[in-house]
User: Which sequence fits this backbone?
């Protein structure tokens, strides 16, 4: 494997790993803040216990999210120095803003929230968890702005003497249509992930734990968030598809393995073949008009195929192969969509049970809800593969090829060493995190939590 | 534009200073000690993230050369920071002496390695590394290990130890406080000599003669002031002094560098400077506006955090025997918690910001 391959593997592996934790953090921070708000308003002890219970899970996750995020930031300079040099003048700005506007907020107020139970008034303490939630959401905004610039670069000029990209309109970067739709999509997916995790933990507790009444509440809250979030996520996702079809037609054509131009276009549910090396697939099931609708918002919309796009790109950018990995695109699209549908069905089932007040007794639902926690992670990972792999062979669409962004001064051996270090470290971290999450998720609630009397100080958390 | 660069650099220096300031204080992995920085370390580590991102945004060329050139050193640094970060979180998560002992050892190792590596990196910037006309690093990992770079690393570790000791003396009571004070008194003279050596060596390396100038002198004087203040049990002032020492030491590297940011040992003409690595003027303007708007907020709420957690901690707060840390949902004995704060009257202290 070449240095380029290893660097790409490293980025893919560390990003996917990082993004397992990020949506849980964003989602759980929001849900924990909701629980604490419920406690603040109702003064019911159950909500306080739930807040602290899910807060503990949140903290375990944030720790890993933060340290793996640091690796992401360093990696641009370490493995992709030519990329950083060329476009850092644009791409660096949202990253720096993220640190300044979001990370400080998130980390400082997390410390205040964790350790401030007995030092802050109830109202101020409630504000600190909302500040944490705001921090996570802002942080995602800047990262998505940076990423969207790679998908659809706007608001920059190329310096005539150096060829480097220079920012000339920050507003354009922050109102990039790919960013607006993509960011909304990510936030909704995070809400889905956090809610699904909360639902799974509640379901486990309802099956095996003692505090059934309390965990019915968190199950209800998670379902009330989950169902609308997944509906909107699917809707926004399909709009994002239309936007991307405009700026990155290759990505959408590859997601359908559509080699020739079609009008109207059908969407295949399942197919065999049709990859980069065997273009004629053995289609099994297809839904007419659906692809046209997804990619263009029109019943009879036209989708340009990969082959015509390839010749079009060659005449624009010179010789080269501009088609992404079709197999990854096609299946990432389907894994994402099918997982989303399953999550949606589960959510509707749960809401129906809640209406009939049977959720705590429905063994099949609880069992399904526990295992369904895997689905949003599949969905998120597939979604990112779809976006990022669909951008290839570009590192910045139309501006720089991935192979030209890699560090010239770093040897293959160095990348191999760092890849090995991170894989080993992340593996251990993952195991420790999973074991701790499981332990905490299966703990009983303390029988008599302090704070039954709202005037008593609530013990602070300590290391 | 130069001014902008200067502001960003200042922020970066400050970030590094802060970070280093808070790294060294956890050697005796006692819970009281760890808990003095419990609410603070995460926010402080963000200074490093922001420093990196700020470099990326304002000086992409510098960021690209430095990060790709110091590749393996940065892998080590990241590993140290990751291990250290999760050690804080996971150490108290299980009631087992071995579990805690192992995480304590990792915490100590990570906290020692991080300032050492950052120090070596900063020293290398000034000493010079093989860099060619395309701003690409041409050396290997071993080129990073030069006497001056290593000595800079040692200096920063020594400063961190002293800084951490004065912080602990300031933030605790009883035995921990006494031990921290005693340690500070023992370490301070050694640190003073190291910093003096560092000041002279830095000045010589920069080619500016033997006699140090203002920031370097300030660093040396501050260390000896800390020694004297710690002797008098004036811990607040001692901590302020080590803060000055830390900041002055880091600033002196950048003052001697300026307007260069990374020296090329291959050819003077290939030095990386503020102007040949900076982003476009518009991007710098945007960043300045963002810094001016957000930095005061950040400083204000971080200062507020220090104020909220101003109380001194004592080993008694944490029980004689190590009990399971009362995390939010600690099972069973969930009510096994800290006694309400007696509130220590002598908890007044200096804020270092």
Assistant:
């Amino acid at each position: 494997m070449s240095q380029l391959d290893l660097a790409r593997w490293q980025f893919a592996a560390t990003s996917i790993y990082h993004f397992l934790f990020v949506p849980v953090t964003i989602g759980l921070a929001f849900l924990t803040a909701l629980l604490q708000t419920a406690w603040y308003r109702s003064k019911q002890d159950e909500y306080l216990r739930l807040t602290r219970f899910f807060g503990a899970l949140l903290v375990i996750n944030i720790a890993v999210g933060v340290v793996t995020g640091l690796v992401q930031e360093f990696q641009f300079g370490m493995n992709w120095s030519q990329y950083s040099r060329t476009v850092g003048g644009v791409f660096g700005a949202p990253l720096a803003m993220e640190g300044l506007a979001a990370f400080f907020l998130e980390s400082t107020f997390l410390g205040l929230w964790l350790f401030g139970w007995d030092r802050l008034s109830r109202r101020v303490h409630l504000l600190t968890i909302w500040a944490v939630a705001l921090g996570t959401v802002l942080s995602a905004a800047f990262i998505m702005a940076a990423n969207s610039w790679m998908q659809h670069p706007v608001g920059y000029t190329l310096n005539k003497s150096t060829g480097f990209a220079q920012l000339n309109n920050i507003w354009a970067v922050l109102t990039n249509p790919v960013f607006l739709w993509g960011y909304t999509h990510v936030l909704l997916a995070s809400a889905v992930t956090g809610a699904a995790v909360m639902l799974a933990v509640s379901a486990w507790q309802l099956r095996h734990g003692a505090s059934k009444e309390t965990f019915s509440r968190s199950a209800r809250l998670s379902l009330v968030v989950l169902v609308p979030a997944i509906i909107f996520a699917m809707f926004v996702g399909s709009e994002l598809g239309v936007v991307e079809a405009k700026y990155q037609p290759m990505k959408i054509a590859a997601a359908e393995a559509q080699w020739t131009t079609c009008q109207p276009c059908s969407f295949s549910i399942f197919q065999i073949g049709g990859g980069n090396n065997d273009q004629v697939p053995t289609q099994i099931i297809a839904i007419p008009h659906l692809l046209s609708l997804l990619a263009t918002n029109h019943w009879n919309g036209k989708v340009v195929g990969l082959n015509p796009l390839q010749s079009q790109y060659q005449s624009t950018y010179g010789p080269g192969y501009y088609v992404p990995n079709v197999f990854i695109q096609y299946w990432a699209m389907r894994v994402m969509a099918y997982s989303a549908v399953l999550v949606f069905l589960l959510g509707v089932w749960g809401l129906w049970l809640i209406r009939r007040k049977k959720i705590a007794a429905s063994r099949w639902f609880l069992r399904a809800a526990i295992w369904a926690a895997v689905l949003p992670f599949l969905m998120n990972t597939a979604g990112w593969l779809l976006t990022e792999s669909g951008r290839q062979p570009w590192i910045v669409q139309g501006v720089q090829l991935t192979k030209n962004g890699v560090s010239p001064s770093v040897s293959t051996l160095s990348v191999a060493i760092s890849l090995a270090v991170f894989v080993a470290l992340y593996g251990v971290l993952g195991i420790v995190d999973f074991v701790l999450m499981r332990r905490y998720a299966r703990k009983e609630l303390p029988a008599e939590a302090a704070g039954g009397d709202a005037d008593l100080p609530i013990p602070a958390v300590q290391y | 534009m130069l001014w902008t660069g200067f502001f960003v650099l200042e922020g970066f220096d400050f970030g590094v200073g802060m970070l280093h300031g808070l790294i060294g204080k956890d050697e005796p992995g006692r819970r009281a000690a760890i808990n003095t920085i419990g609410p603070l370390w995460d926010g402080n580590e963000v200074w490093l993230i922001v420093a990196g991102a700020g470099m990326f945004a304002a000086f992409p060329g510098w960021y690209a050369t430095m990060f790709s050139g110091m590749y393996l050193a940065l892998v080590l640094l990241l590993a140290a920071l990751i291990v250290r970060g999760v050690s804080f979180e996971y150490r108290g998560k299980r009631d087992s002496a071995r579990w805690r002992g192992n995480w304590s050892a990792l915490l100590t190792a990570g906290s020692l390695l991080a300032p050492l590596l950052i120090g070596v990196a900063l020293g290398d910037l000034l000493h010079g590394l093989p860099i060619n006309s395309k701003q690409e690093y041409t050396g290997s990992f071993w080129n990073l290990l030069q006497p001056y770079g290593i000595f800079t690393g040692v200096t920063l570790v020594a400063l961190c130890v002293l800084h951490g000791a004065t912080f602990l003396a300031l933030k605790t009571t009883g035995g921990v406080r006494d031990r921290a004070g005693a340690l500070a008194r023992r370490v301070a003279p050694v640190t003073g000599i190291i910093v003096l050596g560092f000041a002279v060596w830095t000045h010589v390396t920069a080619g500016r003669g033997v006699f140090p100038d203002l920031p370097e002198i300030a660093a040396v004087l501050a260390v000896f002031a800390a020694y004297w203040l710690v002797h008098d049990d004036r811990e607040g002032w001692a901590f302020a002094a080590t803060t000055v020492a830390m900041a002055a030491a880091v600033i002196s590297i950048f003052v001697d560098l300026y307007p260069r940011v990374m020296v090329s040992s291959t050819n003077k003409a290939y030095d990386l400077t503020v102007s040949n690595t900076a982003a476009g003027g518009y991007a710098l303007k945007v960043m300045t506006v963002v810094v001016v708007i957000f930095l005061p907020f950040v400083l204000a709420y971080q200062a507020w955090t220090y104020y909220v957690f101003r109380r001194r901690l004592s080993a008694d707060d944490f029980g004689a025997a190590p009990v399971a840390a009362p995390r939010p949902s600690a099972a069973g004995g969930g009510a096994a918690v800290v006694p309400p704060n007696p509130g220590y009257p002598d908890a007044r202290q200096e804020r270092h910001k």
